[in-house]
Write a structure and sequence with these properties.
By secondary structure, the protein is mainly alpha-helical. 70% of the residues lie in helices and 3% in strands. The protein has a 3-stranded antiparallel sheet with strand order 1-3-2, with helices on one face.
Length: 286
């Protein structure tokens, strides 16, 4: 029965990935977010495709700014961006751990370091440096804490899920089997769900971006005023509009509002580490 479930999962995942990869090319989203949705769909199959349609796909021409302005969609985009980047490092760490036969705690550390490292230095700081004024060093500084919080809660949901399933799914620890990839997909899916609330908090406190809209110059010129009006009607007046003419883009969120978040970031970081420690303890006892 499990083999049948996995076969269905992979068939639907392949179909979903094909749909998103083709369809998202016409969605007026930033390139990094497009890649993010493709990766999420590769990780989570039909769930990722559903999230793309529900959260990012333009329902009608010219409505992307307004459609993605809702806070829950902004948080969805933030979570997707986090899991897409971190997932590359986590999966790399899981494959290396499988091939090198690392014990449980070593595997956890390798996955955490590679996941955080890739998510922070590449998917956050490098790809989003324009949001931080074009400086990579400034982007590293401004994205460190948000990435840390997101990563901690992603791993909090993922670790016990993967370790529990490995007890019941044969060969789930062997990267050369489809069972391994099925279990890792389930882990990333649960990690996505667990990390969504902290990404909501990060977006609400202007510590992370959400969805963005990028249009050709002609479309941008025609729809700019209307898009600003629509977005500003959906969002707080404290969330400023940013227009980057070199990119011809409209960004629905900005990561630096100058307002101190509540609760303070150190408090949230402590809570995230407590949650991660409890999750790791449960996972290692499995």
């Amino acid at each position: 029965m499990l083999d049948g479930v996995m076969l269905l999962w992979f068939v639907l995942a392949a179909a979903s990935l094909l749909f998103v990869a083709v369809d998202i090319r016409t969605t007026p989203e930033s390139p990094v977010m497009k890649w993010g949705f493709v990766l999420i769909t590769a990780y989570t199959g039909v769930v990722g495709a559903f999230l793309y349609v529900l959260g990012c796909r333009e329902p009608l021409p010219g409505l992307h700014e307004r459609y993605t302005a809702a806070r829950w969609r902004q948080a969805l985009g933030s979570t997707m961006h986090c899991v897409a980047g971190d997932g590359v490092g986590i999966l790399t760490g899981a494959v290396l751990s499988s091939l090198l036969h690392f014990p449980g705690m070593t595997e956890v550390v390798v996955e955490y370091v590679l996941g955080f490292g890739f998510g922070w230095t590449v998917f956050q700081a490098l790809f989003m440096r324009d949001v931080a004024g074009g400086s990579y060093l400034r982007a590293l500084k401004s994205t460190f804490a948000p990435e840390l919080l997101s990563m901690n809660f992603l791993m909090t949901g993922m670790l016990p899920t993967v370790m529990t399933l490995r007890k019941y799914v044969v060969s789930a620890g062997n990267a050369m089997t489809p069972n391994f990839w099925f279990v890792m997909s389930m882990g990333l899916l649960v990690g996505f769900i667990v990390s969504y609330p902290i990404n909501w908090w990060l977006v609400a406190n202007h510590l992370k971006h959400g969805m963005m809209t990028v249009r050709p110059a002609s479309a941008h010129a025609r729809g700019h005023d209307r898009a600003v009006e629509a977005v500003m009607s959906e969002m707080s007046h404290e969330e400023p509009h940013i227009s980057d003419t070199s990119q011809r883009s409209h960004m629905s969120m900005h990561i630096d509002s100058g307002q101190a978040p509540w609760p303070p970031v150190p408090v949230m970081a402590l809570l995230s580490y407590l949650a991660l420690a409890a999750s790791a303890a449960i996972a290692l006892l499995m």
